[in-house]
## 1
Amino acid sequence: MNNKQDQNGSNKSPMLYFIILSLVATIGLNYLLSFLMSPQKKEIYYNEFIQMVEQDKVDSIEIKSDRILIYEKNGTQNGGIPEYIDGFSEQPSMYYTGYVNDPKLSELLNEHNVKYKRSLDENNIFVDFFVSWIFPILLLYLFFGLLMRSMGKKMGGSGGIMGIGQSNAKMYMENKTGVTFADVAGQSEAKESLDEIVDFLHNPAKYMAIGAKQPKGALLVGPPGTGKTLLAKAVAGEANVPFFSISGSDFVEMFVGVGASRVRDLFKQASAKAPCIIFIDEIDAIGKSRDNQYGGNDEREQTLNQLLSEMDGFDSSKGVVILAATNRPEILDKALLRPGRFDRRIIVEKPDLKGREDILKVHIKNVKVSPEIDLHEIALATSGAVGADLANMVNEAALRAVRMKRNVVIQDDLMEAVEIIIAGKEKKDRILSDKEKRIVAYHEVGHALATALQKNTDPVQKITIVPRTMGALGYTMQMPEEEKYLMSKDEILDEITVLLAGRVAEEIVFNTKTTGAANDIERANDLARAMIAQYGMSDKFGMAALEKVQSKYLDGRNVPNCSEETQTQLDNEIIKVLKEAHEKAEKLLTENIEALDRIAEFLIERETITGEQFMNILNEIRDEKNKKEDTSEES
Ligand code: ADP
Ligand code: MG
Ligand code: ZN
């Protein structure tokens, strides 16, 4: 990330507001203080004061630089003796008069027994000024600053005191992203669509000459981690133009209007740097459809409206292209998607086998590897993984190589990394009791056997009963021989049987049911439900769509699309499918109980066995059986 800089426009008006505010507050404070600090005082004439002295009404006086404070005798309880505490008397009533240079005063005072003194601790004018003016302002400034900062933090802004209303969103500008299409593996369709934008940014005149208008914006749509952000950067890198990026959620603040002003700011700064790319990540944060049922959100709507009008307003011939990314395109406001705005939609799919291999190749370039590694095998084992997973995997493999004190990454590291992504790290310190270990072993071998004994399943790659950090006590890894894009009904049914076979093995051998099967059961249920409600694979409902997927790119939950009555029937149908699969698994395992026992014992001893070892034992048992049958037939 070179040339990254925070874009912070400056804005003077908040400072002015602040100064006025604190001045008013300080004046008010001073007034209040002087009111509170001084007892009831009454100004009298100087000759009235002399009169009071002559009438022996005065107990003591205090001469200040500009006035004389007069403490009356009250002649009652404390006999008129004032108690001076830090220069103040506790006398209840008090008068004062202006200071008059009267040489005869001391004489008169002595005559009438009036105590008098000149106040010594007359405050320095500077100290006075500081205490009553500068200090409160500083205090207010500090308080204000803290308040703003904590607010700013909460809102995700980076601004301090002066940040009200200004664009302190995390907008980044990179002059050179340093990413090119070569860094984005696979995704050739997406790259093709973006190529045109790159070309346009290179040479807008070519398009203008013929009168062709470039799309103003393109929306990158796809599941998280598939490389949308990466692609946007690559477009900027290829076109060699500045890249402005901001996340949709950074627009939305607590104060209405802030988001809108940020949008204005963004477009102003970007058009000054044209040609360039504006990238709005996670645009669904502001682009949510405005007619949702939970009442409006003024701030978000204003921000969206501002974005819409900016997109309409700017002249695309200047060479500003807006890219946005989302994984929930279905909730976006229709206005965003209409022609002239984000009229291009570029789907960034999860990578297929070849795509995964290519992504692995891109990332493996950064680590030292031994020549024997086989990325094709890794790609096969990682069906469903996205680019971010694969990048992470390569890194995990490199970390493991370091842990093992090797200086290159070998295939084992990569396979282990695949498992880490699927099941979490090995958790060697979790000790299972012997009984538990046996149950887990039988459970896993149950899965593996059901896999091997059915036709429409992927071969077993590895079985292990070493606990994993993500909660699995053991697991069976299957490895497809080739990438599949379709799943048939038979394959789904076999898969459900495999999932249930773990628990079935527990039931057959130990006559017990454990919690270890929870995840299997959940997955089996989901599969059965999808099979009936979404894939139209049941005889009862035919091809009725009983459920809809809500956010396709986020593996979102399914919402019912049928009456409650039908849902009840659907549930019954699911239960039926699961029951049948249960029976099938039971039949498979009881018929092969010898294999189950032998492989489980082997697993308990070794803790991990490979698919090859597994198949060897299974074939041995088959051979023995065949021989037995042969001999019995002969006899
Ligand atoms: P998204 O924005 O779609 O959620 P990102 O673009 O942030 O995903 O991808 C995250 C990381 O995953 C990237 O930084 C990159 O390392 C890796 N990655 C994802 N897709 C690819 C790809 N097609 N080729 C190479 N690396 C990829
Ligand atoms: Mg992203
Ligand atoms: Zn299981």
## 2
Amino acid sequence: MPAETNIESHLIEKRVFKPSAEFKRRARISSFAEYERMYRESIARPEKFWAREAKDLVWRKKWDRVLEWKSPFAKWFVGGKLNVSENCLDQHLHTFRRNKAAIIWEGEPGEKRTLTYQQLHREVCRFANVLKRNNVGKGDRVIIYLPTIPEAAVAMLACARIGAVHSVVFGGFSAESIRERISDSGAVALITADGSHRRGAIVQLKNNVDHALSGGTSVKRVIVFRRAGNEIHMEPGRDIWWHRELEYVEANCEPEPLDAEHPLYILYTSGSTGKPKGILHTAGGYLVGIHSTMKYVFDLREDDLYWCTADVGWVTGHSYVVYGPLAAGATTFMYEGAPNWPEPDRFWRMIEENRITILYTAPTAIRAFIRWGDSWVKKHDLSSLRLLGSVGEPINPEAWMWYYNVIGGGRCPIVDTWWQTETGGIMITPLPGAIPTKPGSATLPFFGVDAAVVDAHGAEVGANVGGKLIIRKPWPSMLRTIYGDTERFRKQYWSEYPGEYLTGDGARRDKDGYFWIVGRIDDVLNVAGHRLGTSEIESALVAHAKVAEAAVVGRPDEIKGQAVVAFVTLKGDAKPKAELKTELRDHVGAQIGAIAKPDEVRFAEALPKTRSGKIMRRLLKEIATGQTVSGDITTLEDFSVLAKLREEE
Ligand code: WT7
């Protein structure tokens, strides 16, 4: 029934939206009491709960033990064997889903493709044979550098089918970033496309790959999918065409039964120090977690057309564009391009034309839509939508309300889902038929998730007191380690509160136990829903010949959530010119990727430091946001630095 009847108060903090009777009627979990009962059971007896969830999947061999927990190392479904691609494909072929659409895709220029489960299965088998033909085997690492096209899913599933470990690199990342990921993972093969379409232009993917591979790497084979038709270089003996390879292979390929703890993928994400971390996820626990959240959080029905707008290069693309929906037998919609191409109503046009029922997108996109104006939305019939999702950063209550009213027509529940690359799947979230929502809150923990907000000593804080968000018990889709760096894994996540997982986020719980995530508390920025380590950008800047020192901080940004501000001191005779700012921005773009380019570069004569030499980011943050510097500066080494930084404004 109309949304307005749900509003209990017009005070922002007090708005509560109860699931409508209509939504509840068909929901999987349809009352708060049912959520509470299941949650309590999942925490009291997690092994029983997860064993039941795991039974939804196809196992080649049943597990001996659900969990083996030797903190910080977890093994889930120990002794069990399964294949992720079999679960995403083959199992559906024995049902009416055989001819159901698995993927409906639209390219940015407007092409449309539909792959049924049967067709997708065939493509995956063929491509798995291409991998085998090219000496890619179980345990080998494979880099995937593709746009959001069906072949990205095909490549991922083909790796999973033969037990190769994929590492998808976001198509917006630079040659340098690809090279770093190849070297860290020791990948033997790379799958890419000639180019991809973005805002009417062609992104030169293959060209970036050529740069990444120049000078030699562990990559022996590059398989190139023809997507954009742009002219590219093919290196003899190394590069081969995807379509040509298909001519040599058969369409059957048995899925390899793999250990539940066999690695499925490595996905690199930024941390607070040094180079990106290779987050490792394994087959069994990951798939159980993803399948379970997919089913309950999106309250999936057989006839849904589900669209998660994420790029396959991010964890959201892994868990909720490819593996989750396909394991659940859903139809997953994929779109290659930009939301405002050719016009700002692209999303709404596709929702109307395809009659999409579930939309899962990011606050940064929602804020951009708000800015582009309601008229773009109003041109379209969005009545097919029944559920909305948000992910990537805290959603501000105004954006939540706009999403609810303008996109959802006051009819669709919003699931604001908190999770991370490391958690693999959704951790804190409403269940749409059961948990009343409050704009801006991710609400309550999912089943089996023992989340808490704690103080410096690890003691749980009271209602509405801020603290660090931790997870106190292992969960199936948790990361298993940082690839090649167990010490960093231990230190980063498990050392501050031994035995408990440190998320790196700050949060508070209100009197109803609802979580309000305030964002990162470490040196990690969240720009347009993507994680960027300040130190990573600083290293890129310092690598420039003219830069002596750099400090990067975030500044609140209306659209992107946070903008990147770089304070830079120059070497010797380098002149602080405007052109140098552009040069430095481009330099960061080339080192990491366009998303990491500083929005603002400020030259400084010196950076504010403590007597022990630590850069005082708090001060820089205040300067970057134009606030007057407040608080304690007694440890500041040179007071004149502050005055100079202010003059620069
Ligand atoms: C960080 C994880 C999860 C997939 C996309 C990002 C922030 C994520 C929310 C949310 C508030 C959120 C956190 C988290 N975040 N979702 N619903 N509400 N904050 O994955 O790159 O691993 O980033 O994104 O700060 O730690 P990621």
